[in-house]
Amino acid sequence: MILSSLVLLFILAPLIGMFLHTGGGQFLETVKDREVQQSVWLTLWVSFAATLIFSLGAIPFAWLLARKKFPFKNVVQGIIDLPIVLPHTAAGLALLGFISRDGFLGKTASLFGLNLVNHPSGIALAMAFVSLPFLINAARDGFAAVPERLEKAALNLGASNTKVFFTISLPLAWRSITTGFVMMFARGMSEFGAVVIIAYHPMIAPVLIYERFSSYGLNYARPASVFFILVALLFLIGLRLLSLKRKEKYINADAQTD
Amino acid sequence: MLRLININKRLGDFALTDINIEVSAGEYYVLLGRSGSGKTQLLELIAGLEHPDKGRIILDNEEITNRSIQDRKVGIVFQDYAVFPHMTVFGNIAYPLRARKEDKKSITEKVEKAATAMNIKHILERSTIKLSGGELQRVALARTLITSPRLLLLDEPLSSLDTSLKDDLKRLLRNLNKAGQTIIHVTHDYGDAISLAKRVGVIHNGNIIQEGSVDEVFKNPSSRFVARYAGIRNFFKVNISEENGLFVGVTDHNVRFKLNGVTAGNDRLLFIRSGFISLTNEVPADNELNAIKGRITEIIPSEFGMEVVVDAHDLFHINILFSEIEKLKLVEGKDVWVNFPARAIVVINSNS
């Protein structure tokens, strides 16, 4: 009991300390700072977009992992977890080689006149690279928890595989998937190491905080941190509430029509 | 209608081997076996949820071995019902129709009709989460029957219902079958098998070890397993009639049973529950007892002590303790009385 409180305190104390050290006037000034506003907004939407776009591939992939047997499945699972154990600067460097003008993806993108380095799309890739395991693993566990019987019954009732996926597997794994979605989004927007190598500019909030700290010191970096934390928290809570509501709506809507 | 030809399927360290079954149209076929005997797997093979390693499945003269699940028109109702928890009762029953993209109006009509037939119209708008086992089962049945399956597969439909619900469901299944629905019903319960089946297949360790009409299989068990499975050897076909206010069942060999709580009718099946039969050397004093005279033809050691076979034109099998044999001085060729109360007799109401 005492040990648990100590652990909890260890997490909370530095945060509370930071909040207490931030004066109201200082904080308001930072909030009004256009540079800060832009970086916070950039961080949020890029991470959200990365999560949304990658979930289109990650969710069916998670279903495959939960349901199908295939050769080297353990290896595949290991590869998925790789970004969690890599130092994120190393991940950033690896990704840079891939998306710079000499890399495969970079070359392809430049054909369309897009330079991924120092561009939001590059930031999105870096965020996705380090945070994708959270969505895939949560969604996989969610799909695995759906009784296979229900999918079999739906197939037996004449539904196609796609139809079964969208009407049975996905809605029943919905809670885990949204949890994974929120986790991936949160992990993506807090990423620093991989992003700073791909794009110092445009500046996402973690890079901005680092820059203010290294150029002007703790007192300048702190209000920006507090602001970013508050906005991120609000966004996360909002997303959670929204996902719970959507699940309820799905159940109620079914009584009427498809 | 359905033919399984030399079906083989390996499932881990267990295998279905050389399964051959033929079910004709309109038949009620019961597959009887203990849990782990492979009966559920066999249903899944027929439904196309699994594929056999070897062998062929023929339905209505068409080979469907490699046909997709959706094209088979074989409906399966799982033991746990597999009712979709995130949909209402209506949503569940409408599911197959929506998958076929029928229009809204015809869906509503068909669902209401199916729900009325299953007596669940009043719960159509409810969520399935709080339904009872019996209600869930009716939802699952309605959902499958709405697809008009050529063949209905039932996996242990009676196992988790209490007695009164069981009787309701049995009646419902009998009526379905009478209306022409071909049914394959999998169960571990001997009582269910004899009360519903026209034909029975006994499955053990992945093999069909005996097949035939209920009467054939349980009167002439082909193996010790089938005999022990039933646990009952005393199984008789009788005509029941009323004599002086009392009901009497008479076999083809003129053995007479005093019965309670039955109705008259021909070609009924009855069995005597084991553990109720005793032997005496004299006519018992209690007039209420059934007392049937016969001659001992065999005394065989059994797992319960000794098994005495008494020939009273029909054969009775009685398990008694070795000490009883000595006390009554029972030997082969001796005449004895077989006694049992009317309440030990179970009549299978094949006409209800």
Describe this structure in words.
The complex is a heterodimer of chains A (258) and B (352). Chain A is 83% helix and 0% strand. Chain A is globular. Chain B has 352 residues and is of the alpha+beta class. Chain B folds into two domains: 229 residues, Rossmann fold (3-Layer(aba) Sandwich); 114 residues, OB fold (Dihydrolipoamide Acetyltransferase, E2P) (Beta Barrel), CATH 2.40.50. Helices cover 25% and strands 36% of the residues of chain B. Chain B is built from nine helices and 20 strands. Chain B has a six-stranded mixed sheet with strand order 6-7-8-3-9-10, with helices on both faces. A five-stranded antiparallel sheet of chain B has the order 13-12-11-14-20. Chain B has a five-stranded antiparallel sheet with strand order 15-19-16-17-18. In chain B, a hairpin with a 2-residue loop joins strand 11 and strand 12. In chain B, helix 2 crosses helix 3 and helix 3 packs across helix 4. The longest helix of chain B is centred in the middle third of the chain and has 16 residues. Classes of the chains: A mainly alpha (258), B alpha+beta (352). Chains A and B meet through helix 8, helix 9 and helix 13 of A and strand 6, helix 2 and helix 4 of B.
Key structural traits:
heterodimer; A: 258 residues; mainly alpha; MetI-like fold; 13 helices; 0% strand; B: 352 residues; alpha+beta; Rossmann fold; OB fold (Dihydrolipoamide Acetyltransferase, E2P); 2 domains; six-stranded mixed sheet; globular
Number of helices of chain B: 9
CATH architecture grouping of chain A: Orthogonal Bundle
Largest β-sheet summary of chain B = 6 strands, mixed
Highest CATH level, the class of chain A: Mainly Alpha
CATH homologous superfamily label of the largest domain in chain B: P-loop containing nucleotide triphosphate hydrolases
Low-confidence spans of chain B: none
